[in-house]
Amino acid sequence: MDGTFLDDRSSFDHDRFHRVMTSLRTRGIRFVAASGNQTVKMQRLFQAFPDVDFIGQNGAEIQLHGTPLEAATFTPETVKRILTIMDQFSAAQVAVCGVTTVWIRSDADPRFAHDMRAYYPHVVAVPNLTSYTQGVVKFDMIGAPQTMTAMLTPLHQALTGLAVPTASGTGIIDLIQPGRDKAWALQQISKKLDIPASDMLVFGDGANDLSMFRFAGQAVAMANAAAAIRAAADDVALANTESGVMAYIETHVLL
Fold first, then answer.
1. What whole-number distance in Å separates Cα of residue 76 and Cα of residue 200?
2. CB-based burial of residue 210 (10 Å sphere; 0-12 exposed, 13-18 middle, 19+ buried)?
3. Residue 34's closest CA among 227, 248, 186?
4. 172 and 95 part of one domain
């Protein structure tokens, strides 16, 4: 969503999207919004478009026309082990993400707390994160970009078998469930709706989109994506600030 479909004000042209959705619906084509965001937040963004499907929390949540298909969560024991390991990476601020609630520490950096509340609909500050282990879908780790980049490899090593660190933006690492990435979610949709991967067209701008790029029949990177992301795609669309997703659909799918 951010950096791909949404512009730099976290918005989109509703009138244009209404025209695109009407044309897609006529042709029997589904539109799926896939994001590290919670599904509940994306539903608010698309509340005027009930035909939009959702992949939330980088793959752990799936909703088809408002009907939940999947909401995979970590076991409480795994959550406790991950939190203990994350304590070793004190340069990062941490958020524990559930389906509807996100928990942060009461003593979290105020700027981080403000950003979390701008990003997630329901953020709760608590004294100790280890008390909140039920229904956890993923974890966010946020810090200085260079520090977070350097943190990826040791995180991978420390969390082997527990969680997969995935770069989800500048200075942001999501810890997702092993095997529960966006490609896995597309696979579930493929089975449910009998749509082969070869008929899927995906858009993305970040490292957390690469699994979709490998799964789908055609992958399109945004012009604003990093060079490595563009190199992994089959084609490049206009930037998110130019409604690149809608423009590409209009010229390559609907013509």
1. 35
2. buried
3. 186
4. yes
pLDDT given for residue 170 in this prediction: 80
- Report if residue 184 sits inside a domain: yes
Tens of pLDDT along 82-107? 999 999 999 999 999 998 899 999 99
In whole angstroms, give the CA distance from residue 2 to residue 8: 8
**Are residue 103 and residue 189 in the same domain, yes or no?**
no
Give all strands of the β-sheet with 123-126 in edge-to-edge order: 123-126, 102-105, 93-98, 136-142, 172-176, 164-169
Dihedral sign for Cα atoms in the order 32, 36, 41, 44 = negative
244 is in which domain, residue-wise?
14-71+180-252
Q: What is the largest CA-CA distance in the chain?
A: 55
Residues making up the chain, counted from first to last: 255
- The reply to whether 201 and 242 lie within a common domain is yes
Run of H or E residues at 120: none
Number of H helices, E strands in the chain: 9, 13
What confidence tens digit (pLDDT) does each residue in 182-191 have? 999 999 999 9
- Residue 226's φ and ψ, nearest 5 degrees, are -65, 155
Q: 103 burial class (0-12, 13-18, 19+ CB within 10 angstroms)?
A: buried
